[in-house]
Amino acid sequence: MEEKKEPIICVPGQRLCLSDKFNVPGPGTYEQHGYIYSKLAGVVNLIKTEQTCTVEVQGMREQSIVPAPGDIVTAMVMLVNQRFCKCAIKCIGDVVLTRPYRGILRREDVRATEKDKIEMYKSFRPGDIILARVLPLTEVHTYQLTTAENELGVVIAHSEEGVSMVPVSWTEMQCPKTFNKEFRKVAKVVPEHVINEQ
Prior knowledge:
The chain contains 1 helix and 16 strands.
């Protein structure tokens, strides 16, 4: 009879093992610099096949999830200046967080092209809801974000009238009430049914 092994408990950001041809990251983990790290506070599960061992972390509570490099997050723009905008990260993928994380989006990470021509006030305004990708960590407690992909940028914005604006181009949104246009770095939102059909 096999003796029962104690479960391995881990915390968010904890390095679990090397990431190689045998050990592969599964749900609740991410790979960075050749190692597998935990995204959650939870129990480590190893799912072994002949060729691989998938390292998974089963969360004790869903809310111990933290943003990891490469994650797509939903954030609210809190403050905008010429060099960057400060954001509050509200969701990671489909998971709504119980508390927001601080994010910063620098001018050079707004678009992939014409970086020197970017004006932060023409890309974002406080209160905008944006989709952004998490960059590798450089500062503790602040996540660096980028919107330098077509699918990333402003998804919800309100006009001065308080009405939800409609995207009219990559760089503009329009108020359906007053027809005033405002500059934004607009996200190209791909409907879910299109993603599922691919």
